[in-house]
């Protein structure tokens, strides 16, 4: 090989243990066509691993003799375009994750590992390759490779004739539906009929039916059966050469079962109109701008989004709509499908891998132009974006808790800049960070101050002091007032929503005699009692064990349950108001795929009177018959050791209150609390976000927390406590020397839970306003600690935790 221009492929390999972001160089065998953004298989040491081609370089001379060739190319066309590759660089720089992790995060998980690949015929053509498909619709990648067809297939793909598909094992195999197509000329009808034996009535009928079909028309076999032609009839006809069977690929459609009524745009009220115009104008001008759409619950934010998107689609552009969690997605997805039909693809973790891949492909092929999805939908392969919307922008689920620890809001803004399009952050209770940017004019503030449906008013909120209540009604989770109101709704045939942010039966069991609390053997946390499985379970590591009847410590039978969870409240409700039909929605009742939606649909169809659940019921639900919301213990989140606990509580109370009175009937909210004087509770009572914002900002200012400071959390963990602590102190020392005097370093302190899954956690918090070298310093720390990391030490850096 002496060509001057010989190129090498630069490949980012998937070898986590290497902990490196350096690309490795590989020779490109002449028979392989490879482009930037494609996945390849390469040799790495003794192993074959997957990698991404991120660029090319001119080969040095002489060629180093340890260079290896690419083994195979895994794609026909790049799976990541220039934009997404650049986004991966940005993600890496802001999250300190490995580049390969960033790249993989952007693709549907079927494409990561364990997949089979096949080519699917999309159109019939008269080529050798296409003939290979005859009788079926797919061709294995291995076969194609063996035949030496990869380059030809790449060309056919370019023409839209074949497509490459990735599938996980056999479970998610492509779905096909059988159709028939006529293969005789209708001019021959009489001739064919004449050739039939006497009394072949059915066959004559079939011939007539087929002859009447339009040229090339496909009719589903299912439909033929409805026309009273059996499979035997069709098989006979095929044998006679009258028709042929065609397998047509079907997308797995999670919404296929559902009838969705088309909706039309509503006439916007003046506030909605102003918001819509401000956003649309930026889209028309092709300018990037971040908007903060602050609108009370039920103020018609979604209608504004829908109308902006309608314009974007009319311009031939695409749109992205992010929603926080899967429990919210069914209703939102249906509202979007009702307006835009098959233009909408839906992406969230509740779909099977196959369904997710199919939805992703619709976007990639340009068959759908709108994506509605949870966090990872931010990576949807949309080109020519006209608007990006993040609904409920304050939600924590937009931040990924594991590497790469990205925030979808930041990536949305990056993509918005790239596409010169508006980004809309919507919320009734914006995060303090976003609101502060709105205040400064970095984001443009838009307000919706009233409920859009003119009959619907914001609900009245009653605060119940549980300290007093407890003296009268010991051992009840329900205050007198809440109980009475629940009974009243039941009598009127109206529905109620109850929030308790704690799942399980009770959060710990304790010996009344010696005070022993049953701990998890792997984590420093108590075990939660679950009656449905009759076990004690750890919510951190999943450890399960039997319920103790005697105290494991002192042997007495004084074990008692403390800390009420949703299971126990359900039991209490059954005793208190036996005639009420109760649905429970929490992590435990929604494990199965589609369970969320089932519960919500049942509640929407009034199959239950009360929906009881954890915070997953607080968001986005729009049930006009709900007139009462009860918060059983508003203090759960308030007592957390987190500077955001007030903000979270205010958001949760506002969100859940917003579920009441969305229709014509007025709504009421009961908040039970042990801290009735707390400003968070009082301001939530009056739906007073504005004053909450100012009060909370004062506290953040006094305590040097965001948005006045940026924060980074560095967590060190190891199976031996001493090793974790040692490293944490060493890093603290190093950081203290390198940070500017204006910055603040907190810690090291043991993690909020010192031990999880038998690993010990220590953490440092850096608070800073301006620290241009911090990224470099942290990257260096990661580099230098590589050796420790191979010995079981983990360092996690969390930007804006
Ligand atoms: P948000 O997203 O702010 O919570 P929604 O968009 O869900 O609010 O709107 C709340 C209710 O008001 C919905 O039932 C919606 O159909 C209705 N709505 C929204 N805009 C209008 C309007 N301009 N006129 C009449 N009803 C509206
Ligand atoms: Zn545990």
From TrEMBL:
Indicate which residues the UniProt annotation says bind Zn(2+) 1.
Answer: 511, 514, 551, 554
The free-text note explaining how the cofactor binds reads:
Binds 2 zinc ions per subunit.
How does this chain assemble? Answer: Component of the replication restart primosome.
What are the boundaries of the signal sequence? none
| Transmembrane helix among keywords | no
Gene Ontology cellular-component terms listed: primosome complex
Sequence similarity: Belongs to the helicase family. PriA subfamily.
What NCBIfam families does the entry give? priA (TIGR00595), PRK05580.1-3 (NF004066)
Sequence ranges assigned to domain Helicase ATP-binding in this UniProt record: 282-448
Enzyme class at the top of the EC tree: isomerase
- Quote one Gene Ontology molecular function term: zinc ion binding
| Domain (Helicase C-terminal) ranges | 546-700
Q: One GO biological process from the UniProt record?
A: double-strand break repair
Query: Where is Zn(2+) 2 annotated to bind?
Result: 520, 523, 538, 541
Q: Which Gene3D superfamilies match?
A: P-loop containing nucleotide triphosphate hydrolases (3.40.50.300), PriA, 3(prime) DNA-binding domain (3.40.1440.60)
Keywords from UniProt, A to Z, are: ATP-binding, DNA replication, DNA-binding, Helicase, Hydrolase, Isomerase, Metal-binding, Nucleotide-binding, Primosome, Zinc
Which gene carries the instructions for this protein?
priA
Protein name listed in UniProt: Replication restart protein PriA
Cofactor(s) this protein requires = Zn(2+)
E.C. number, please? Answer: 5.6.2.4
């Amino acid at each position: 090989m002496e060509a001057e221009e010989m190129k090498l492929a630069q490949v980012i390999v998937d070898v986590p243990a290497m902990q490196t972001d350096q690309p490795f160089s590989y020779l490109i065998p002449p028979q392989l066509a490879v482009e930037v953004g494609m996945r390849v298989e390469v040799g790495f040491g003794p192993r074959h691993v997957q990698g991404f081609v991120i660029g090319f370089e001119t080969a040095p001379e002489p060629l180093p003799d340890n260079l290896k060739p690419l083994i195979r190319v895994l794609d026909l066309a790049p799976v990541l375009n220039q934009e997404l590759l650049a986004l991966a660089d940005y993600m890496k720089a802001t999250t300190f994750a490995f580049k390969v992790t960033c790249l993989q995060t952007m693709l549907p998980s079927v494409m990561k590992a364990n997949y089979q690949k096949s080519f699917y015929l999309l159109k019939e053509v008269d080529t050798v390759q296409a003939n290979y498909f005859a009788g079926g619709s797919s061709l294995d990648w291995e076969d194609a490779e063996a035949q030496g067809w990869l380059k030809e297939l790449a060309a056919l793909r370019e023409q839209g004739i074949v497509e490459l598909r990735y599938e996980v094992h056999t479970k998610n195999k492509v779905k096909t539906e059988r159709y028939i197509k006529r293969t005789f000329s209708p001019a021959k009808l009489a001739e064919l009929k004449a050739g039939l034996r006497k009394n072949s009535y059915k066959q004559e009928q079939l011939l007539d039916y087929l002859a009447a079909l339009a040229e090339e028309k496909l009719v589903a076999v299912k439909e033929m059966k409805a026309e009273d032609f059996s499979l035997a009839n069709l098989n006979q006809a095929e044998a006679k050469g009258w028709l042929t069977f065609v397998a047509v690929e079907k997308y797995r459609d999670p919404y296929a079962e559902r009838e969705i009524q088309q909706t039309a745009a509503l006439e916007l009220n003046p506030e909605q109109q102003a918001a819509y115009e401000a956003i649309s104008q930026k889209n028309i001008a092709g300018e990037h701008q971040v908007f903060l759409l602050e609108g009370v619950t039920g103020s018609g934010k979604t209608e504004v989004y829908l109308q902006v998107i309608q314009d974007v689609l009319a311009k031939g552009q695409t749109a992205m709509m992010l929603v926080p969690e899967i429990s919210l997605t069914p209703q939102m997805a249906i509202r979007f499908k009702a307006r835009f039909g098959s233009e909408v693809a839906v992406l969230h973790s509740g779909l099977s891998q196959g369904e997710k891949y199919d939805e992703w492909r619709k976007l990639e092929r340009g068959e759908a132009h709108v994506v509605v999805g949870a966090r990872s939908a931010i990576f949807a392969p949309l080109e020519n974006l006209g608007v990006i919307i993040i609904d409920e922008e304050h939600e924590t689920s937009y931040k990924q808790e594991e590497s790469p620890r990205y925030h979808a809001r930041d990536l949305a803004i990056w993509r918005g800049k790239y596409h010169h399009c508006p980004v809309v952050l919507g919320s009734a209770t914006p995060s303090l960070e976003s609101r502060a940017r709105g205040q400064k004019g970095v984001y443009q503030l838009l307000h919706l101050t009233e409920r859009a449906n003119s009959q619907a008013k914001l609900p009245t909120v009653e605060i119940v002091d549980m300290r007093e209540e407890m003296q009268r009604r010991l051992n009840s989770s329900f205050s007198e007032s809440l109980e009475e109101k629940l009974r009243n709704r039941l009598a009127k045939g109206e529905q109620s929503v109850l929030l308790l942010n704690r799942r399980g039966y009770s959060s710990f069991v304790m010996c009344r005699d010696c005070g022993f609390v049953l701990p998890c053997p792997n984590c420093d946390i108590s075990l939660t009692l679950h009656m449905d499985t009759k076990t004690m379970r750890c919510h951190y590591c999943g450890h399960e064990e039997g319920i103790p009847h005697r105290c494991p410590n002192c042997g007495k039978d004084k074990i008692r349950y403390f800390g009420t969870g949703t299971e126990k409240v359900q039991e209490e409700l059954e005793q208190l108001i036996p005639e009420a039909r109760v649905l429970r929605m929490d992590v435990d009742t929604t494990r199965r795929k589609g369970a969320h939606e089932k519960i919500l649909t049942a509640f929407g169809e009034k199959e239950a009177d009360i929906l009881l659940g954890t915070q997953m019921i607080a968001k986005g639900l729009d049930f006009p018959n709900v007139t009462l919301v009860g918060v059983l213990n508003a203090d759960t989140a308030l007592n957390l050791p987190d500077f955001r606990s007030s903000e979270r509580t205010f958001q949760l109370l506002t969100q859940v209150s917003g579920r009441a009175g969305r229709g014509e009937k007025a709504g009421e909210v009961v908040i039970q609390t042990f801290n009735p004087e707390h400003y968070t509770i009082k301001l939530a009572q009056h739906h007073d976000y504005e004053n909450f914002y100012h009060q909370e900002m004062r506290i953040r200012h006094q305590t040097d927390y965001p948005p006045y400071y940026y924060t980074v959390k560095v967590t060190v963990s190891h199976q031996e406590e001493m090793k974790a602590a040692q490293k944490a102190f060493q890093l603290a020392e190093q950081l203290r020397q390198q940070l500017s005097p204006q910055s603040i370093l907190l810690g090291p302190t043991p993690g909020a839970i010192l031990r999880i899954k038998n690993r010990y956690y220590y953490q440092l918090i850096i608070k800073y306003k301006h620290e241009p070298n911090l990224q470099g310093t942290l990257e260096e720390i990661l580099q230098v600690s590589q050796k420790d990391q191979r010995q079981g030490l983990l360092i996690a850096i969390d930007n804006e935790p």
